[in-house]
From TrEMBL:
SUPFAM superfamilies in the record: Putative cyclase
Similarity-based family: Belongs to the Cyclase 1 superfamily.
Pfam families in the record: Cyclase
GO biological-process terms attached to the record: L-tryptophan catabolic process to kynurenine; negative regulation of programmed cell death
Keyword Transcription: no
GO molecular function: arylformamidase activity
Signal peptide: 1-26
Organism: Eutrema salsugineum (Saltwater cress)
Annotated compartments: Secreted, Extracellular space, Extracellular matrix
Signal in keyword set: yes
Protein name: Cyclase family protein
């Protein structure tokens, strides 16, 4: 039991130490104490392509967004010696990965969860491409993109980014995504092992289960969904995605960045 006491005390001590230069004589914070929130770091080299988790971000088939997914379980204002937040949300919220168990029940039972995903697939050179805005990603569209063999990670920017769908609270089932024949074409004709898209599902709503199954069947392709691909130029980057190690979960929220 001592651990559960030591841990918050340690945090408190570290926080007090690191904040001490900001505290005035009376121990109060200065009025201009504001965090910097950014999309780009390192003087234009590091792009954050993950979305912020907020109550207003869209959630699957909901008109209410994520709503009150986060709450302050213990608060200093109410006498606790630290602020401690708790969250409750679908693992397919915001920027996230799918694990093979998401649409294939045998894989779920066998333990192909978010902890089983290959970090080598999730990290490495990646291509960001723009896809035609007037179609979903069909076999024909895939073929027209001329993605060279050997390319293992591709982020597909679609009409979803132009429509700013991830910034709209209300779920929109008309989002652009892979059709089943496009997914089949990808599996059969490319070396792509990471498929990134810019709304809550990489698969178009209409054919979502079948399309997921095509991509997840081989257990070697990882969909990364709800990426924030605004204001990033088409081209090659180093991609880094680190999903949470949620044992038994068929998906996980993830932070993803691109480095130039
Ligand atoms: C702790 O939570 C309160 C809300 O009860 C908030 O107003 C305050 O800023 C938080 N304090 C710190 C140190 O984060
Ligand atoms: C503090 O406690 C009051 C009374 O129980 C409650 O109404 C309020 O929501 C609490 N505030 C926080 C930030 O936990
Ligand atoms: C993509 O498919 C969805 C249905 O899943 C449809 O509503 C939408 O209009 C299609 N988008 C385009 C650009 O054809």
């Amino acid at each position: 039991m001592t651990r559960s006491v030591d841990f918050p005390l340690l945090i408190l001590a570290v926080t007090a130490l690191s904040l001490s230069p900001l505290l005035g004589v009376a121990g109060k914070f200065s009025d201009d104490l504001k965090p910097i929130r950014r999309e780009v770091y390192g003087g234009g080299k590091i792009f954050d392509i993950s979305h912020r988790y907020t109550p207003e971000m869209p959630a699957w088939e909901s008109s209410e967004g994520l709503a009150s997914f986060l709450r302050l379980a213990a608060s200093m204002k109410n006498g606790s010696f630290a602020n401690v937040s708790e969250m409750k949300l679908s693992v397919h919220s915001g920027t996230h990965v799918d694990a093979p168990g998401h649409f294939i029940d045998e894989y779920y039972d066998a333990g192909f969860d978010s902890d089983s995903l290959d970090l080598q697939t999730l990290n490495g050179p990646a291509l960001l491409v723009d896809v035609p805005r007037d179609k979903n990603i069909t076999a024909e569209v895939m073929e027209s993109l001329h993605i060279p063999r050997g390319v293992r990670r591709v982020l597909f920017r679609t009409l979803n980014t132009d429509r700013r769908l991830m910034f709209k609270k209300e779920f929109d089932s008309s989002f652009a995504g892979f059709m089943t024949d496009g997914a089949k074409w990808l599996v059969e004709n490319t070396d792509i092992k990471l498929v990134g898209l810019d709304y809550l599902s990489f698969a178009a709503f209409e054919e979502s289960p079948a399309t997921h199954k095509v991509i997840l069947a081989g257990r070697d392709i990882i969909p990364v969904e709800a990426l924030k691909l605004d204001d990033v130029e088409v081209g090659t980057y180093s991609l880094h995605c680190l999903p949470l190690r949620l044992v038994n979960a068929e998906g996980a929220p993830t932070r993803c960045i691109l480095i130039k």
